[in-house]
Amino acid sequence: MPSLTTKLVSVNGTPTLGETTVITTTASTSMLKQCQINISSVEVHLDYGVVMFRSPGLSCSFIITEEDSRRSSRCSKEEQLVYSCVVMDLTPGATNTLTILSESDGERANLTIHTRPNVTLTLYPLLRDTAPGRVSALRLQATDERTLCLSWTPPRGFWDRYQMLLWDGTTVVENRTLLAHTLSEFCLHNRTLVPGRNYRAAIQVESAGGSTQEECYGRAAPRSVRWLQVALLSESSLRVSWSPPEGEWQTLSAQLLIADALLESRDLDHDALSSSFQNLTPGHTYTITVTTHSGGLSSSSHIGATTPPAQVSGLQLSNLGRTDSLEVSWSPAVGRLDQYKVQLLQDSMVVRNLSVSHTQTQMLLTGLLPGTLYRAVVTTGHSSVFSKQMIAEGRTVPAVVREVAVSNSGRMDFLSVSWRAAEGFVEGYTIVLSDRDHAVHTLAVSSLTTECVFTSLVPGRLYSITISSRSGVFRNQTSVQQRTQPAAVQNPSTSHLAREDLLRVYWRQPTGDFDHYEVSLTHTGVMQMNRSLHWSQSECVFAGLVPGRLYTITVSTHSGELHASSYTHGRTLPAAVQNLSISASGPEHLQVCWAAAPGDVDHYELQLLFNDLKVFPTITVSSSSTEYLLSSLTPGRLYKILLSTFSGPNLRVRFITARTVPSSVQNLHISNSGQKRELRVSWTPGPGDVDRYTVLLDQTKQKSVPKHINNLHFQDLEPGRQYSLTVLSISGSLSSNCSSSGRTVPAPVNSVLVDSAMFSRSLVVSWQPPEGVFDCVYVQLRDERGALLENISQTHSLTQHHFSRLTPGQLYQIQIQSVSGGIQSDSRLARGRITPAPVRNLSAYSESSRSVRVHWSPPLGVYDTFSVVLCDEEESACEQKSGAAEMQKCVFSNLQPGTRYRALVQTHSGEKSNGTAVWTRTVQFSLVPSLERHEHRDYLSPEASSSSSGRFPSRSSSEVEARVLHKELTLSMFLFAAPAMVSSLHVDCRNNSESLWLRWTRPEGEISGYTVRILDLNGHIHSTHTLPPESVSQQVQGLWPGREYWMLVLSHSKELSSRVEMHTRTAPRPPLSFSSVEISTSSVDLSWVPPDDSDFDDFQLQWSRADQLLLIDSDQSGNSDERGQGLRTTGGNSSRQWHLAGLFPGRRYQISLRAVSGSGTNSTRYSEPVYSSIRTRERSTARTFLTSHRVRVVGYVCMLLSPGPSRVRRLHCRPQSPSSLSCSWSPPQSDFDWYTIECTLEGSEELAYSQRTPRGNTVHLIQALQPHRKYTVTVTVLSGGLRSDGVQQSTSTMIDRPPLPGAHIEESEVELSRSTILFHFNCSWFSDANGAIRFFTIIVMESSGASLSLCAL
């Protein structure tokens, strides 16, 4: 192995007497070890030497050995990484070989030193009298807690002895004298030393010449902690605790080791008495070391601990659906373990006790009792140490019951169930009665019960009975089936179906379940027919039967092998009479004849009907009769004659109709109703009945109306013409007539024009003649308040008129009417205003070089406002001011000095204006230097304004020229200002989705052009437009529908510009489709598809009626809004469907939908609307054929579900006069078109009045009635072809004269004076039913009977 040799000359000092020491060090060069030796200094004395070196190791221990004597001593650690070694008893003046050896890793270093030679004894007395040297390398170290060792290096020279001192603070603990000169270490064992305390030590070197002293500090070794104990907290944690050590210490530390490997080390507080370690591995053995530290010394205590094995996890006890076994399973425990111990307990008794390998995680336990609760206890074992128990409970499945029996006991709603108890443990039973997998009844009984009863069941139904054995949460069941007794059919009935040879039997379905029916037909106990029907049928028809015969029908219900029966009786329909006809007829009679009906007939009944109402009581005729005479009939009336054949309760009907001659109409009245092309004819019906009315106009034009309409309108007639009308009453093929004449309203004049000359005080009105017939024209002149000023009549040949000498500025109204036969047409109204007069005494003068004052006097006539316009000669710069009628002057400022201006003052009255102008000039500035006197000319002085006005060129508002003129020098300067911004910027989309229109007002000043830029919200320029200065508008195309844009308008003047910006957006596209999905009486479902290629935010839904409707989102339930203004905004951009509720039945709605873009902003845009028109359905009401179709069906009544409008509400009728009634009502809550008012005389059921009125009327006057008769008024609502139920009220007309007074006045009740008579009487004898009392007449007479006075009150 190679070696390294180093020579050190005079290392860290020079030996005594000037000798040189050479040191040679040899070390291994294979690698530098941890405790490498690096010698730094060597001190050689007479008989000892001190070697100082450094080592990088942290826990190294060194010894030094003399090669000749083989003596060794331990090296001490002076400070961090610095060590010292002392070699004693060397031979003076000799060469000594030393070796330094590391006890930690075997590192060594060899060195050779030369001691000093011995001084002759002749020199000793001289040296003895000098002061001794100081010891060096003084150290105080503890070997244990009661022993301190003091080591040093002897001083140079001579000395007599050592004095050793040891202090504890200021108290001397030891004081000893040491005489040996060769002594360099002394150990002191004192039981009074406090472990861990710091002590001070001193070595005094004494001789005859004096003494020297060196001090050092050292600490006694601390004691270790006492009573070290370990407590296991869990499988993965423990706590170590101890008692404080004796003596003093500074800090504590704890280390956790496993197999001499350090896992965790922590520093503790001075007063700590315990420490816990977490996250340990279960089943491992750990060593815990607690170390006491005092300075650089420490003392440790050790203890060992083993953590218990971990518990298993996921322990489960499952029965796997079995009644006699349980499976135990768990997840393996963490850490070390040897085995698992498994115990199975029932209550507190151990049933199984097993140990299994640590690799097994499940096992099956068999031979257990059904339905029993067990507990499984699993523990983990390692080295005879077991973990905590993990417990799980489980129960075996209970056993099923045995020998189940079910019986219905012959009842329709009853089932009884019985069984034998199940084996093993059962908590109770649950019995479920099911109908087609649906539980009907559920009973829970105890384990001691073995039967139960079910009632209130469905007859004939097959039930499933399931009995479940219950143990804990587990069930085990068995099922059986049984059927209840079926029920018989209900209310069996028969019908002949209006046939002579048929019988129909029908019934109500029996309750419960059944399979089929058996229907049998018998007569006098003899079976005629028998049929089997499906269970869903509820009727049966038997054909080929004898007319009028009585039969017995039996219906049997079968369910499985069980059945129940019910029966009824039925009779066939008899035959009708044949050849029913009218053999003779007259105005008031009809002769009826017929041929006898075939088969068995009991009797005939004859009925005379009008409008399905009986005219006479029913007439019974014997079965042998074949004719009958009907008399006292109403002329012109259409009657229905019914002849019924009876056999038992059944009948068969034949009928015919006949009609009498009608009467003519009465009270014929013709009115034009203020219309120029219409005539309205009305009448009251004559007595009797009619089919329709036909109205002839001038015998050339005719119209037919139904009989219930008593008026007719003729349209498209010639205005102002007289017509002749004839009304024909038609009943069947017969008719009568009544005639009268009427005139239409003349047409108004056309093209009325009013003209006023500019400087005149007159108006000229002209017109075009009206169409049709007219006699003359009325022309009226009125002021603006409507007061009549002039009224003239013009013949039909004149078409204009001139009004003169009118007031200037006054507004006039001219009304023109045409006249035909005394009937005036509608007015034509025109307005005209006289031109206002100009102002008077107009003057204008310059107040300064930049201002002008204008003054005037008020004009004549009427005027509203004044406006003053001031312009320069080229009219390139104008300024305008306006004021009220009180304005008489104004001032214009900021003008150009020395400029000629024209002031125009206009008088305004309405849209008319008149003005006058005057010229003036502003004063010019005169700029003259203050120090030099030069001649100068004032170009724009007021005196020279007229002669010098053309010297300066005209400048714009953006360029100002200032000149200073002298005799020798003319200085000009031009100033340019930024142009003004455009004003009144307005952007309109005009409902266009791809274009925008911009317009603005041109700013003042000079403009060289405009630039219009369109940007999107991201700042991207869409387009740029450069426009000339005269432009005030621009259209931008190719934009995206519904998108927001940023508009910039820049006004340019040379190189300068100003801009105005505005945010706007285009209109979105409309929805692609809009439709109504489902319409009911009060709601509609709306659906639409959003637009493509368009931006939008919301949709706006509007409806035409201002109804309070409810809008519900069908896609997101819970979202709804109630509005009454027909407006609703809905979000979303996908296909939507909404439900609109709260509509009125029968009402038509116009619904529109628009897309909205920019909702909630100032630039909201709407698309073109799409429309959908709907009408809600009418409510359904039940009616009979007799009410809705006026058809009488003998024998039975058929019901219809006919939709119709609602009825009127709060009908009230009262007498208006002896011949009229006044009725009022509230409209129905649905849509409708007309009201029909019918009035019949009570008792006779005669129709006395019938009239149709529009839907807007709620008050009606019924006229042409008889005095003091009781009438029934019926008001019916019509909607299209549908009618509502009629609302009726009965009331009486007034009497035709007042009744006789029933009041009697006693003399005692009369108060008399000289000229008066005062008395009181009661008016209760006059009823309000007879009408209102208008006045009383009181006659006062003298006792002789002469009438003195007549007083009406």
Please render the helix and strand layout as text.
Layout: E1 3-9, E2 22-28, E3 38-44, E4 49-54, E5 62-66, E6 72-74, E7 76-79, E8 82-87, E9 95-102, E10 108-114, H1 124-128, E11 136-144, E12 147-153, E13 161-168, E14 171-178, E15 185-189, E16 198-207, E17 210-219, E18 226-234, E19 237-243, E20 251-258, E21 261-268, E22 274-277, E23 285-294, E24 297-306, E25 313-318, E26 326-331, E27 339-346, E28 349-357, E29 362-365, E30 373-382, E31 385-386, E32 390-395, E33 402-407, E34 415-420, E35 428-435, E36 438-446, E37 451-454, E38 462-471, E39 474-483, E40 490-495, E41 503-508, E42 516-523, E43 526-534, E44 539-542, E45 550-559, E46 562-571, E47 578-585, E48 589-595, E49 603-610, E50 613-614, E51 619-621, E52 627-631, E53 638-647, E54 650-659, E55 666-671, E56 679-684, E57 692-697, E58 701-706, E59 711-714, E60 722-731, E61 734-743, E62 750-755, E63 763-768, E64 776-783, E65 788-795, E66 800-803, E67 811-820, E68 823-824, E69 828-833, E70 840-848, E71 851-857, E72 865-872, E73 878-884, E74 889-892, E75 900-909, E76 912-921, E77 959-965, E78 970-976, E79 983-988, ...
Antiparallel strand pairs: 1-2, 3-4, 4-8, 5-6, 5-9, 7-8, 9-10, 11-12, 12-15, 13-14, 13-16, 16-17, 18-19, 19-22, 20-21, 20-23, 23-24, 25-26, 26-29, 27-28, 27-30, 30-31, 30-32, 33-34, 34-37, 35-36, 35-38, 38-39, 40-41, 41-44, 42-43, 42-45, 45-46, 47-48, 48-52, 49-50, 49-51, 49-53, 53-54, 55-56, ...
Describe this structure as you would to a colleague:
The chain has 1353 residues and is mainly beta. Strands 27, 28, 30, 31 and 32 form a five-stranded antiparallel beta sheet that branches. A hairpin with a 3-residue loop joins strand 57 and strand 58. The chain is flat and about 185 Å long. It starts with a strand and ends with a strand.
